[in-house]
Design goal:
single chain; 343 residues; alpha+beta; 60s Ribosomal Protein L30, Chain: A; Phosphoribosyl-aminoimidazole Synthetase, Chain A, domain 2; seven-stranded mixed sheet; four-stranded mixed sheet; 9 helices; 13 strands; 31% helix; binds adenosine-5'-diphosphate; binds magnesium ion
Length: 343
C-alpha cells in the first residue's frame, strides 16, 4: 500500500458518504432516485421486485489477512447478485451499509469501493443507498440487492418435478480448495512471518475464492433458449446442501452421478496436494456461486448448445431418498455435511 493515510474522521460522516458516492451515474431506468435523500425510489414498470440481503462480518465471513479489500468489495456485491440470478431475475440496484473502525483509512475504504463499483459496472446495477456507521472492532458489510423479473417468472426451490434433470453451471469445489491454500499459508506466516507465501500455480482455485462471478450468462442463456427451470438456487454452501434443499422443499428425492459432477482439472490437481477427494470438495465445499437448477427432460436437447451446463442427475420420488452413484457404481445417501465415504 502507498504511504499516505487519511483518517476517516477528518472527513466527517457526510463528507465520507459524499466522497464514496460522488461519482455514481445511475445506469437503470428503474433507478428513479439514488443516493442523497431519505430513501431511494425504484420503478420496475410492472415487473415483480426480487430482494435479497446479506451481512458479512470480518473474522466470520472474510479474513483481511489474505483478502485484498478491492476483491472483498467485488465479492460482497457478486454474492448478493448471485441470489437474484438464482431467482431467474435480473439485479438492478444494491444498497451497501458499512461499519468501520478507526483502523481503516480513507485509502483502504476507497480500495473496497473500487471493487464494489467494478462489480456494479460489470453487472449493470446501481448503488442507490446505504448507511455508514462506526464499529468498535472489525469491518461489517451489509448489502441488499434488488432485481426485477417478469410477473411470475421467478423460480423457487420448491417446484422441481419428479423426473426433472438436475443441472449445474461451471465447475464446483474450486473455491474451497483455494481457501485451503490461503489458510495453510496464513498458518505458516503466523508461525514464521519472514516466509513468503507459496501459492505458485494455484491462481485458478484462489481466484475462484477471492473473485467469484455470478452466473448472469446462464440466466440469459436460459431465457434465450426458452428454458424455464422448474427449480433453481445458487451454490453457496456446497452442492450436497443445495440439492438437499431442492429435494426437501419440492418433496422429492434425487439421484446424482459422481462422474457427471463438473470439477476443473486445476482443482483436481490442487485437491490431491491436500490428499482430499475432488468429489468431496465439489459436494461439500462452498462459495462456488454456480447455479443448480432442474428442467423437464424434454428440454434436454436445448442444453447441448451450452458447454457450461452439466446434467448431473435427476429428481425421483421422495421415498427413494437423495443418493449419489459413485464412479465405481456404489450408491450412497447424500448428506448436508458432505459425503465422506471416499475419504
Ligand atoms: P439517514 O440519516 O437518513 O440515514 P444518511 O446520512 O445515513 O441518511 O445517508 C444519506 C444518503 O447517503 C442516503 O441516500 C443513504 O442511502 C446514502 N448512503 C449512506 N451511506 C452510504 C454508503 N456507505 N454507500 C452508499 N450510500 C450511502
Ligand atoms: Mg444513515
Amino acid at each position: 500500500m502507498s504511504g499516505s493515510r487519511t483518517e476517516i474522521s477528518s472527513l466527517g460522516e457526510f463528507g465520507l458518504i459524499d466522497h464514496l458516492t460522488q461519482n455514481i451515474e445511475l445506469q437503470n431506468a428503474s433507478s428513479v432516485l439514488g443516493v442523497g435523500d431519505d430513501a431511494a425510489v425504484i420503478d420496475h414498470f410492472g415487473k415483480q421486485t426480487v430482494i435479497s440481503t446479506d451481512l458479512l462480518i470480518e473474522g466470520v465471513h472474510f479474513d483481511l489477512m489474505y483478502t485484498p479489500l478491492k476483491h472483498l468489495g467485488y465479492k460482497s456485491v457478486v454474492v448478493n447478485l448471485s441470489d437474484i440470478y438464482a431467482m431467474n431475475a435480473t439485479p438492478t440496484q444494491i444498497t451497501l451499509s458499512i461499519g468501520i473502525s478507526n483502523r481503516f483509512s480513507l485509502e483502504a475504504l476507497d480500495e473496497f469501493y473500487e471493487g464494489v463499483y467494478a462489480a456494479c459496472e460489470k453487472y449493470g446495477v446501481d448503488l442507490v443507498g446505504g448507511d455508514t456507521t462506526s464499529s468498535q472492532k472489525g469491518f461489517i458489510i451489509s448489502i441488499t440487492a434488488i432485481g426485477e423479473v417478469a410477473p411470475d417468472k421467478f423460480v423457487k426451490r420448491s417446484t422441481a418435478q419428479k423426473g426433472d434433470l438436475i443441472c449445474v453451471s461451471g465447475y464446483l469445489g474450486s473455491a474451497y480448495v483455494g481457501l485451503l491454500f490461503l489458510e495453510r499459508e496464513k498458518k505458516i506466516f503466523m508461525e514464521s512471518p519472514g516466509v513468503q507465501p507459496d501459492l505458485e500455480g494455484e491462481s485458478y482455485v484462489i481466484g475462484r475464492l477471492l473473485k467469484p462471478e455470478a452466473r448472469k450468462d446462464i440466466v440469459e442463456f436460459l431465457a434465450q433458449s426458452e428454458i424455464t427451470p422448474t427449480a433453481m438456487m445458487d451454490v453457496s454452501d456446497g452442492l450436497s446442501s443445495e440439492v438437499l434443499h431442492i429435494c426437501k422443499q419440492s418433496g422429492l428425492g434425487c439421484v446424482l452421478y459422481e462422474e457427471k459432477i463438473p470439477v476443473a482439472e486445476q482443482m483436481r490437481q490442487a485437491a490431491y496436494k491436500f490428499e482430499i477427494d475432488p468429489t468431496a470438495c465439489a459436494l461439500s465445499g462452498g462459495e462456488d456461486y454456480e447455479l443448480v437448477f432442474t428442467i423437464p427432460q424434454d428440454q434436454h436437447e436445448k442444453l447441448v448448445l451450452n458447454e457450461e451446463i452439466s446434467v448431473i442427475g435427476y429428481m425421483t420420488e421422495s421415498e427413494q431418498g437423495a443418493n449419489i452413484i459413485t464412479k465405481g457404481g456404489s450408491k450412497y445417501p447424500i448428506t448436508a455435511q458432505g459425503w465422506n465415504h471416499l475419504k
